[in-house]
Write a structure and sequence with these properties.
379 residues; 7-stranded mixed β-sheet; 5-stranded mixed β-sheet; 13 helices; 12 strands; binds pyridoxal-5'-phosphate
Length: 379
């Protein structure tokens, strides 16, 4: 199956009971047994639920993996990956990453004796400088949130394989429509399914996809043992969202390009971060590992101050000032005070997350309305 067919049919079967085309929402915590252990494959919904299973099969299909796992949030999915590790293990992570991932790593797992190295990976060969006998995981986010840096997944995977270390890629910004990390050599792909996979800003959910059976078994064990699963209603919503992922992403990319180009030509705008520009430092890597450049765009105004950035986001009308991204509606965020506030200012600013930075999740509204909205807000 090609990708645009997989979003609709990948891993799906019509329901055996009545042939319903969409899987029923099995809103049940438990399943009747005829005798202890005598059941139809489902015992308890933390472990398995038919609606969640349909979604997990869809995750596996669209990422070209074999095993999909759904969690109660993106962070719960990341948490399950870190639980593969032991005290004393080390992780090499992108230094420009979602603030909540940074908070989980530094404020929870460092206390459990796991060591994190946060490094710039724009030159992915640098990863190798930080590898030692304790290194167990490389954590890559690409494009990064919010600076839109691009990390070469093939180079990272060659290093991970050479040193027998797992490579996990947070594919939230790109989605499998644009980039399929398992095809490029990653071991684990992770999503905040809250974003483009769900696509309608109505669900919080996380996903993992792997190819290796042993790794899948370990992650399924953690999923059940730690229990951070999602419910059947949310599983249904994300499954429905995935069915239009390809057409939504096509429009996100078109509108993202139009917005990035508009901002780039605006006399009051200092810098626009979008991997589709030829002068983006890793534009060629983006071109080789992604099918297009997505709908996320960050920028700073020439005035370069906090108050001006706040004024712009407050004036926007079509773009809603809100956390999150990846929904059909356009959102604007101020990373320094919102999504990335959990990263200390000095750390944040080292990677470019300055007080004047604005991040846009460009939705699928009419392009002209989006541009006019930016025009009136920037002035
Ligand atoms: C790139 C990225 N990874 C992970 C997460 C965490 O996902 P969730 O909010 O679903 O827990 C987010 C949330 O914004 C994100 O943007």
């Amino acid at each position: 199956m090609k990708f645009n067919t997989k979003t609709i049919h990948g891993g799906q079967e019509h329901d055996p009971a009545y042939g319903s085309v969409m899987p029923p929402i099995y809103q049940t915590s438990t399943y009747a047994q005829s005798t202890p252990g005598g059941h139809k494959g489902y015992e308890y919904s933390r472990t398995h639920n038919p609606t969640r299973n349909a979604l997990e099969n869809s995750f596996a299909s669209i990422e070209n993996g074999k095993y999909g796992l759904a969690f109660g949030s993106g962070l719960a999915a990341i948490d399950a990956v870190i639980k593969l590790l032991q005290p004393g293990d080390e992780v090499i992570s992108t230094n420009d990453l979602y603030g909540g991932s940074y908070r989980l790593f530094t404020k929870i797992y460092e206390d459990f004796g796991i060591k994190f190295h946060f490094i710039g990976m724009e030159n992915a060969h640098r990863i190798e400088d930080y590898i030692n006998d304790n290194t167990k995981l490389i954590w890559v986010e690409t494009p990064t949130n919010p600076m839109m840096n691009i990390i070469d997944i093939v180079v990272a995977s060659k290093i991970s394989k050479k040193h027998n270390v797992l490579l996990a890629v947070d594919n939230t910004f790109a989605t499998p429509y644009l980039q399929q990390p398992l095809n490029l050599g990653a071991d684990i792909v992770m999503h905040s399914a809250t974003k483009y996979l769900g696509g309608h800003s109505d669900v919080v959910m996380g996903a993992l996809v792997v190819k290796d059976e042993k790794l899948a078994e370990r992650l399924y064990f953690i999923q059940n043992a730690s229990g951070a699963v999602c419910g059947p209603q949310d599983s249904f919503l994300v499954l429905r969202g995935i069915k239009t992922l390809h057409i939504r992403m096509q429009r996100h990319c078109e509108n993202g390009r139009a917005v990035a180009e508009y901002l780039n030509s605006h006399p009051k705008i200092e810098k626009v971060y979008w991997p589709g520009f030829e002068n983006h430092p890793n534009h060629n890597i983006a071109k080789s590992q992604m099918n297009d450049f997505g709908g996320m765009v960050s920028f700073t105004a020439k005035s370069n101050n906090y108050e001006e950035a706040i004024k712009i986001v407050e004036k926007l009308k079509v773009f809603t000032l809100a956390e999150s991204l990846g929904g059909v509606e356009s959102l604007a965020g101020h990373p320094a005070s919102m999504t990335h506030a959990s990263i200390p200012k000095e750390e944040r600013e080292k990677t470019g997350v300055v007080d004047s930075l604005i991040r846009l999740s460009v939705g699928i509204e009419d392009e002209e309305d989006l541009i006019n909205d930016l025009k009136q807000a920037i002035g």
